Amino acid sequence: MQMDASISRRQFIKKSGGAIAALSAMPAALSSQSMDGLPNIVFIICDQMRGDAMGCAGDRMARTPHLDRMAEQGIRFRNFFSNSPVCAPSRVSFFTGLYPHQHGKLTNRSGEFISDLKDSMLGYFRAKGYRLGWVGKNHTYVKDCLEELDTWKDRGREPFRAYSKYVPPHWHSDTLLPEESCYPGINTDDSIEFINQAKQGEPFFLHVSYFDPHPPYMAPSEYTSQYCSRDMKIPDYIDPAQLSDRLAEQQKALHYDQIKESDLTETLRYYYAAIEYGVDKQVGRILDALEQKGMLQNTIVVFTSDHGDFMGHHHMVRKGMFLYDHLLHIPFIMYAPGRLPAGEVVNTCCQSIDLYPTLVEMTGGKADETLPGRSMVPFVHSEEDPERMVFASAKYSDLPDGYWSDPEPRLHPESDVPFHTRVERITWKDEQATLMIRNREWKMILNESRKPELYHMNDQHTETRNVVDDPGVQNIRKKLKAELVKVWNDPDWKTS
């Protein structure tokens, strides 16, 4: 199935003009002209952090004082969503302002990374004279693009985190190296060095990409020992069959239907320790470096994640090719003292592709309106839009016929491929499409090989029961389906 037969990725980008357009007037509080020169940008993204896993979001188990400080002195977007439930498609959408079906990367293994800077956010800011830096995980650009940057340190997870074929899907552990030798701190060291090299009148764009809290969930023992399993609260159990048979099959295939609650609480405490050490502490160090350099008043700091994690919901952990809020709802905070109002919470639904046009506008430009992403600047001024829709997409594959009679793919006995990866290799193929549309009240998911799903979200972030066949919601079902098919522009989409 061609998800967008009317226009190719290259044609779309060419038509959009790379989002570079003429300068336009802006509100004084957001205008780059109200400060000395163009503002610096520090775009921080972590990996697999849920949108509710912060103290400022009401999570009492989370220890995130630096993220809470950003929210208290900046703006937190409470309903921010990734356009994909896995790493690479999400990251490419952030930097291109395009939906996954437009840039063509719908799984981590299908499609292509960005191969030309000018087609992306980095190209835009290079054209505006910004010094460009990249530190940490990539999963976004081809190597040749990163080599064009002023600073490039591509670094993902520590080598000692190699997955063992014997560990269960909920693996967690203390790190095997002292804190100063772990990659989160090293990535932050490199980021601070880049900041300290800044020169007067030379704005910079720094992208800092942390691997945590992506599994294996790990942190130094100084952090993991501060969390107790008895203090961890497992989410109320919702039978995955109430959502979809495909989710129920995934739960069973990964043996999550047999997982012990003690395993889940252990995983939870390591997840939160990884957030505290691998994310929050590092963000605090970057904020301190900007303050010591006297740059906070002329820097826009953005914090977010590429996608979320089931983390206990349905007794599952990790991610998958599903479009539920546990995987799509992500943190998003903008922090720019003197440029943005402090302590605001935006409730309007926003999405990854909105970041590119937002930063364009906040630095004195105007994004081309042919891009699907829209600037979030109006929502900063409390212009709430409860009906605004966001979208997500992915590809998946069903378990093969006869899987349950011989469930584990046969591999050479010396293979180091762990069990959960073997299941992923079956169910993450680029075969079937799944699409999602959502506003604060309602959410619809179309699955090419399964029945549609409809959820009354009621401004929350947990799907509880698929009501797609309830008589009283058929008008809502029809409306959302029409909007979803229109966005993906695919007349052959199978929706029944």
Q: What average pLDDT do the residues reach?
A: 90
**Helix vs. strand class:** alpha/beta
| Shape estimate | globular
**The CATH superfamily title:** Alkaline Phosphatase, subunit A
Distance between the termini: 16 Å
Radius of gyration: 22 Å
Low-confidence stretches: 1-29, 31-35
Strand order, biggest sheet?
5-4-7-1-9-10-2-11
CATH fold node name? Alkaline Phosphatase, subunit A
Reported CATH architecture:
3-Layer(aba) Sandwich
Main pleated sheet: 8 strands, mixed
The counted number of beta strands is: 16
- The CATH C-level class name: Alpha Beta
Number of domains: 1
What topology does this entry show?
Layout: H1 9-16, E1 40-47, H2 65-73, E2 75-77, E3 80-81, H3 87-96, H4 100-103, H5 121-127, E4 131-136, H6 143-146, E5 151-154, E6 172-174, H7 183-196, E7 204-213, E8 217-219, H8 221-224, H9 245-253, H10 261-292, E9 299-305, H11 325-328, E10 332-335, E11 344-346, E12 350-351, H12 355-362, H13 377-380, E13 390-396, H14 419-427, E14 432-438, E15 442-447, E16 453-456, H15 474-488
Parallel strand pairs: 1-7, 1-9, 2-11, 3-12, 4-5, 4-7, 6-8
Antiparallel strand pairs: 2-10, 9-10, 13-14, 14-15, 15-16
Helix pairs in contact: 7-10
Main attributes of the structure:
Alkaline Phosphatase, subunit A; 15 helices; 496 residues; 8-stranded mixed beta sheet; 16% strand; alpha/beta; 4-stranded antiparallel beta sheet; 16 strands
Describe the structure.
This protein is an alpha/beta fold and 496 residues long. It has a single domain (38-388), classed as Alkaline Phosphatase, subunit A. The protein is built from 15 helices and 16 strands. Strands 5-4-7-1-9-10-2-11 form an 8-stranded mixed sheet, sandwiched between helices. Strand 14 and strand 15 (442-447) form a beta hairpin. The longest helix has 32 residues, at 261-292. Residues 1-29 and 31-35 have low confidence and may be disordered.
